[in-house]
Amino acid sequence: MSRVLVIDDEESVLRAVKRRLERGGYAVETAGSAADGVGMIHDAEPAFDVIVTDMSMDTADSGLQVLHAATARDMFSEVIVMTAYGNVANAVECMRRGAFDYIEKNSPDVDVYEVIAEKVDSALMRRRRDIRTVDLWEALKGQANP
């Protein structure tokens, strides 16, 4: 079962995202702050497959701190950044640093929890593909250099 960590300082958002992802068959853990989330990322064994994090919690760049911790822990972890206050500069910075996607929580006429579930599905597909590619490359490299 794929493991997802959801980090947000709004309890209602944590509950809603967790409920939606559990309906999709994911094992979901939650953290109410960036510091708690980073601690869970470091302590997780095995690493989380996907991390969904709010951009602004303890500080305005909490999401970037989570992104850094996740990619430092496991280069294949996929991070989806959510924000209530979307702006192009934040989105570009998150993507530049390796986020899988950047989602605005307050998009009118959009079921953001459904969008998050779809993004998690896509992120997991990319994670599996990337891991499989490295495994195949290492197997071919091993055959070439016995």
UniProtKB/TrEMBL annotation:
<feature type="domain" description="Response regulatory">
    <location>
        <begin position="3"/>
        <end position="120"/>
    </location>
</feature>
<protein>
    <submittedName>
        <fullName>Two component sigma54 specific Fis family transcriptional regulator</fullName>
    </submittedName>
</protein>
<dbReference type="Pfam" id="PF00072">
    <property type="entry name" value="Response_reg"/>
</dbReference>
<dbReference type="InterPro" id="IPR001789">
    <property type="entry name" value="Sig_transdc_resp-reg_receiver"/>
</dbReference>
<dbReference type="GO" id="GO:0000160">
    <property type="term" value="P:phosphorelay signal transduction system"/>
</dbReference>
<keyword id="KW-0597">Phosphoprotein</keyword>
<dbReference type="InterPro" id="IPR011006">
    <property type="entry name" value="CheY-like_superfamily"/>
</dbReference>
<feature type="modified residue" description="4-aspartylphosphate">
    <location>
        <position position="54"/>
    </location>
</feature>
<dbReference type="InterPro" id="IPR050595">
    <property type="entry name" value="Bact_response_regulator"/>
</dbReference>
